[in-house]
Design brief:
heterodimer; A: 532 residues; alpha/beta; Rossmann fold; six-stranded mixed β-sheet; disordered C terminus; B: 331 residues; ABC transporter involved in vitamin B12 uptake, BtuC; two-stranded antiparallel sheet; 2% strand; globular
Chain lengths: 532, 331
C-alpha cells in the first residue's frame, strides 16, 4: 500500500503504472438505499480503478443522484458496503469522502463569483504570511495555483475574477480545486449539459488529462456520444439497479440506450385510455421563445380531452415553456391562442382568469402555502367567489374545501389542517384541488408525481384522465419515462429548447422518447411514416 | 385575541400596576388622557406600518413624512389660507401618492423596500427643511380653526377625540386585515410571495396597496401630530417615529419576514411603548435613558417570544413523532 500514500505526489506518474494497480481504488458492494415509498438503489455494485474513466448513465430517477450522495458522504446506505483502498465501510461520512480523495464537480458550480481564481481554489486553505496579522501570502498562493491551472490546461490567469470566466472555465477551476486537495477520484455530474460544443471539447481534454495522471473519473452525462469518446467503461443504472456494464470495446450508443430502458417492450402502467377522441385545439403555441433558449421557437398544439405528455431531459426547456404559458415568465416572441382566440397572458393572474392552470414543479415553494390551511389554499386563487362584499366567507370556503377533500380523497384530519403537515401526495392533491374547484380549460402539470408514493400516483393519474374526459386539455411535463408513456395520449419531446418530435400512440416506446430527448432521429418513427 | 396578544395585554397591565404602585399619578385623568392621545397618534402611524410589514416590507420614511406633510399642512392652512378640509384631503392624497411611488419602485423596479424608504427618509426630511428654509412652521398669534382643533386635539367626555379616531380606524383596519379578501392576500404574500403569485394573485398590486394604505395613515397621523405640537421645526419633528412604528409592530407579534401579526397586536404594542415612555417620566428615570428602556424591553419581549416559539415547535415535533408512525409527513 506504500504507493497509495504517495498518490498525492505521484500524479505525474505514467499511466501504465496507474492501470497496473490491481485492487480497485473504490468498490461498492450490494448497496441499498430506500426513501419512504421509493427504493433508490437496490443491490448496486461497482468498482472504480485508478486512472479509469467511467461513464455513468441512466434515466432521470434511475438512482444516479442517490449514488452520488452516498459517495459524497451526504447519505448512508441502508445496507451494503463501500470499500476505499480495500478498507470496507458501511457508509462514508463527508470527512471520510473528502479524506479518501473523492471530489465532486457539480452541475451547479460552487464557486464564489466575486473572488478570483486563486482565492477560490485555496479558499479556507490560503497560505499565510508570518506575523500576527496572518495576511494571505499572495505570491505563494499564485505559485501554488500556477501548476494546478497548467494541469487542467487553463487558458485564464490565476487572478481573473471567476465571474468573468465562461462556464467551462469555471468547471476547470472546480477541477483544479479538486486537484489541489489531491483528489484521486473526480466525479463530474452532467458537466457538459449547459456547455456549447467548443467548450465541451476542452472539458473532454481535461478528463483525458486527469486519466493520464492516474486520477479516476466518474463522468455522468446524458450526452451519450461524449461518453462514447472518453469512457473506458460504462456503468448503466436503471431503477436503482445495475442494468449492465459495458467494456471499452462494447461502448456504443445503441447498447447504452438498450440498457437504460431495459426490455424493448416493457409492460406499461396505463392510467386508463381516453374514452373519447380528442376535440378541438384548446391551446395553440406558435413559435414561442423563452428566456432560457431565446433563439429556439417552440410550437405545439394541445387539444381538448387529451393528455399531451411533454418529455425531455432535465434542462431541455419544458418548465420554462410552462412558466411562459402560465404568465410567470415573459414570452419573448411568437403567439398563443386559446380556443382560437389570441391570448396574451402577462401574469399568472391573467392565465388563471383564462382558465389556464399550472401545477408547478416545486410544490413546497410555489404550489401551495405551507403555513395556510387546506381550505385557505384551495380558496386562494378564487377568493372573490368565496366572499361577500369583499369579506371572506369562511363557511363558503370550508364548503368548497370539504367537497374537494372528498372528491380527491385528501387524507387530513380536517380542512383546517395546515398543509405543511401533510404528506407529499396529499399536498399535491391540495394543489390540484384548488384548480379543480375552478373551471379549468387547460391544465399544465409539471412533474405532478415527483416524490409521491405509488398509491397517490395512481390517484393523480386517474384525476388527470378524468379531467381530460371532461374536455380539459392536459399538458403533463414528466421525466418519468413509464409515466409519460403510460399516461399520455400523445408525447411531445423537447431537446435543448425545441420540440424535437411528437409521437402518436402507435409510436410510443421508451427508445423513441429517449432518442428524441437526446436529439436523435427515432428509427421507428421514420419507419411508421413519421408524425410532427 | 390570540395568546400572543393576551400575553402582551397582561404585560401592559402588570407594568401599569407597578408604575401606579410607585406613582399613583399614572392613573390620574390628565395622565391617562395625555397618554391615550399619544397612543392614538402613534397607533394610527403604526397600523400603517403594520400593513407594510405584513407583506415582508418596511417603511422607514414615515418619520420624515410626518415632518414634511405636517409642515405642508400648517403652511397650507396658516399661510396659504387653504380651507382646512381641502388641505386635509390634499395631505391624505399626497400621502397616498408617496405610498404608491414607494410601492411601485419596490414591485415594478424590484428595489428593496429598505433602500427605497431609506432614501425617502432622507429626501422628505431634506425637502421639509428646505421648504421652511430651516425655519419653523406654525400658526400666527390668534389664528384659530375651532372645528379642526376640536377634531384633532379636543376631547369628548374626557376621551381625546384622537383616541376615538384611532378606535374607529383600528376597527375598520381590523376588518380589512383579518376579514377581507385583500387582507388574506396580504398574509399569503407575506408568507410566500411566489406561491401567492402562482395562485393567480396580482401580488404587485396588493403590495402597492399596502404602501398606499401606509402613506394615507401616515399622512393622517402627520396632521394629528401637527395639530398636537402646533408648531413644527422640520429638522427634528417626527424624528425616529418610523422606529416607534416598527417597534410597536414587532412588539405586537409582527415578523419582519412578513405574513405574521394582528391588528390588536400592533395597537397593544403602541400602548406598551407609550406606557414605557410615561413610566420613564413618572418614575423620575433620567429622560436620556428613554430609548435605552424601550430598546431593552423590546429585546426582552422578542427574546421571550422567540424562545417560546422554539419550545412550542419542539413540543409539536415530539408529539408528531409520537403519533405519526403511520407516516403523515412522508418527505
Amino acid at each position: 500500500m506504500a504507493h497509495r500514500l504517495l498518490s498525492g505526489v505521484m500524479n505525474y506518474s505514467d499511466t501504465s503504472f496507474a492501470q497496473s494497480t490491481t485492487a480497485p481504488f473504490l468498490s461498492l458492494e450490494a448497496v441499498r438505499k430506500t426513501y419512504p415509498g421509493v427504493v433508490a438503489l437496490d443491490g448496486f455494485s461497482m468498482e472504480v480503478r485508478s486512472g479509469e474513466v467511467i461513464g455513468l448513465v441512466g434515466e432521470n430517477g434511475a438512482g444516479k443522484s442517490t449514488l452520488m450522495k452516498i459517495l459524497g458522504g451526504v447519505t448512508r446506505p441502508d445496507s451494503g458496503s463501500i470499500a476505499v483502498d480495500s478498507v470496507a465501510h458501511d457508509g462514508l461520512s463527508v470527512e471520510q469522502s473528502i479524506g479518501s480523495g473523492i471530489a465532486f464537480v457539480h452541475q451547479e458550480l460552487n464557486l464564489f463569483e466575486n473572488l478570483d481564481v486563486a482565492a477560490n481554489i485555496f479558499f479556507g486553505r490560503e497560505p499565510l504570511r508570518a506575523g500576527p496579522l496572518k495576511l494571505v501570502d499572495r505570491a505563494k498562493l499564485r505559485e501554488m495555483v500556477a501548476p494546478l491551472l497548467k494541469r487542467v490546461g487553463a487558458n485564464f490567469s490565476a487572478d481573473a475574477p471567476v465571474a468573468s470566466l465562461s462556464l467551462a472555465q469555471q468547471q476547470m477551476v472546480e477541477i483544479a480545486k479538486a486537484l489541489s486537495i489531491k483528489a484521486r477520484l473526480v466525479i463530474l455530474d452532467e458537466p457538459t449539459s449547459s456547455l456549447p460544443m467548443a467548450e465541451t471539447e476542452k472539458l473532454l481534454d481535461v478528463i483525458k488529462g486527469l486519466k493520464a495522471e492516474g486520477i479516476s473519473v466518474i463522468f455522468i452525462s446524458h450526452r451519450l456520444h461524449e461518453i462514447e469518446r472518453v469512457a473506458d467503461r460504462v456503468v448503466v443504472l436503471r431503477d436503482g439497479t445495475l442494468a449492465g456494464t459495458l467494456a471499452k470495446d462494447r461502448i456504443n450508443h445503441d447498447e447504452m440506450v438498450r440498457l437504460m430502458i431495459g426490455r424493448m417492450l416493457k409492460e406499461r402502467e396505463k392510467a386508463g385510455e381516453a374514452t373519447r377522441a380528442p376535440g378541438s385545439v384548446a391551446l395553440s403555441v406558435d413559435a414561442v421563445r423563452t428566456s432560457t433558449y431565446p433563439d429556439r421557437p417552440v410550437s405545439l398544439e394541445l387539444r381538448r380531452g387529451e393528455i399531451l405528455g411533454l418529455a425531455g431531459l432535465v434542462g431541455s426547456g419544458r418548465t420554462e415553456l410552462a412558466r411562459v404559458l402560465f404568465g410567470i415568465d415573459e414570452r419573448l416572441g411568437g403567439s398563443v391562442t386559446l380556443d382560437g382566440k389570441p391570448l396574451d397572458v402577462g401574469s399568472a393572474a391573467d392565465a388563471v382568469a383564462n382558465g389556464i392552470f399550472l401545477v408547478p414543479e416545486d410544490r413546497k415553494l410555489t404550489g401551495i402555502l405551507l403555513d395556510l390551511s387546506i381550505a385557505q389554499n384551495i380558496s386562494l386563487p378564487n377568493l372573490p367567489a368565496h366572499a361577500r362584499r369583499s369579506l371572506v366567507s369562511t363557511s363558503a370556503e370550508l364548503a368548497t374545501a370539504e367537497k374537494q377533500k372528498k372528491n380527491l380523497g385528501i387524507k387530513a384530519p380536517s380542512v383546517a389542517t395546515r398543509t405543511g403537515t401533510l404528506s407529499g401526495g396529499n399536498q399535491q392533491k391540495v394543489v390540484l384541488a384548488k384548480w379543480l374547484a375552478m373551471d379549468p380549460k387547460v391544465m399544465i402539470l409539471d412533474e405532478p408525481t415527483r416524490g409521491i408514493d405509488i398509491g397517490a400516483k395512481a390517484e393523480i393519474y386517474g384525476l388527470m384522465r378524468a379531467l381530460a374526459d371532461a374536455g380539459v386539455a392536459v399538458l403533463m411535463i414528466s421525466s418519468d419515462m413509464e409515466e409519460v408513456i403510460g399516461v399520455s395520449d400523445r408525447i411531445a419531446v423537447m431537446h435543448e429548447g425545441q420540440i424535437s418530435g411528437i409521437l402518436d400512440k402507435d409510436d410510443f416506446s421508451q427508445e423513441n422518447v429517449l432518442l428524441l430527448a437526446v436529439g436523435k432521429t427515432p428509427k421507428l418513427l421514420q419507419a411508421a411514416g413519421g408524425t410532427q | 385575541m390570540s395568546k400572543k396578544d393576551l400575553g402582551l395585554l397582561i404585560l401592559i397591565l402588570v407594568v401599569g400596576a407597578v408604575v401606579t404602585a410607585i406613582n399613583p399619578r399614572f392613573l390620574s385623568a390628565i395622565n391617562l388622557a395625555n397618554t391615550s392621545n399619544l397612543v392614538a397618534l402613534f397607533g394610527i402611524l403604526s397600523i400603517g406600518q403594520a400593513f407594510v410589514i405584513i407583506t415582508g416590507g418596511i417603511e422607514l420614511s414615515v418619520g420624515s413624512l410626518i415632518a414634511l406633510l405636517g409642515t405642508l399642512f400648517i403652511d397650507f392652512i396658516a399661510v396659504r389660507e387653504v380651507s382646512w378640509p381641502l388641505a386635509f384631503v390634499l395631505i391624505l392624497v399626497l400621502g397616498a401618492i408617496i405610498g404608491f411611488v414607494h410601492g411601485w419602485l419596490i414591485t415594478r423596479l424590484k428595489l428593496q423596500p429598505f433602500v427605497v424608504t431609506l432614501c425617502g427618509l432622507l429626501i422628505y426630511r431634506g425637502v421639509a427643511r428646505f421648504y421652511t428654509a430651516d425655519g419653523t412652521a406654525g400658526f400666527a398669534f390668534g389664528q384659530n380653526f375651532p372645528t379642526l382643533e376640536f377634531l384633532t386635539a379636543g376631547r369628548s367626555g374626557g376621551l381625546p377625540n384622537s383616541f376615538i379616531a384611532l378606535i374607529v380606524i383600528a376597527i375598520v383596519m381590523w376588518v380589512v386585515l383579518h376579514r377581507s379578501v385583500f387582507g388574506r392576500y396580504l398574509y399569503a404574500i407575506g408568507k410566500n410571495e411566489e406561491a401567492a403569485k402562482y395562485s393567480g394573485i396580482r401580488t404587485g398590486q396588493v403590495i402597492i396597496s399596502a404602501y398606499v394604505i401606509c402613506g394615507v395613515l401616515t399622512a393622517l397621523s402627520a396632521i394629528y401630530f401637527a395639530m398636537y405640537t402646533r408648531s413644527i421645526s422640520p429638522a427634528s419633528h417626527g424624528q425616529f417615529y418610523e422606529l416607534y412604528a416598527i417597534a410597536a409592530a414587532v412588539l405586537g407579534g409582527f415578523s419582519l419576514r412578513g405574513g405574521e401579526g394582528s391588528l390588536v397586536g400592533v395597537i397593544l404594542g403602541t400602548v406598551l411603548l407609550q406606557e414605557l415612555q410615561n413610566l420613564v417620566n413618572l418614575l423620575g428615570i433620567p429622560s436620556s435613558l428613554n430609548f435605552a428602556v424601550m430598546g431593552g424591553v423590546i429585546l426582552i419581549g422578542v427574546l421571550v417570544d422567540q424562545q417560546w416559539g422554539v419550545f412550542r415547535a419542539r413540543r409539536r415535533m415530539m408529539e408528531a413523532t409520537r403519533q405519526n408512525v403511520a407516516g403523515a409527513p412522508a418527505e
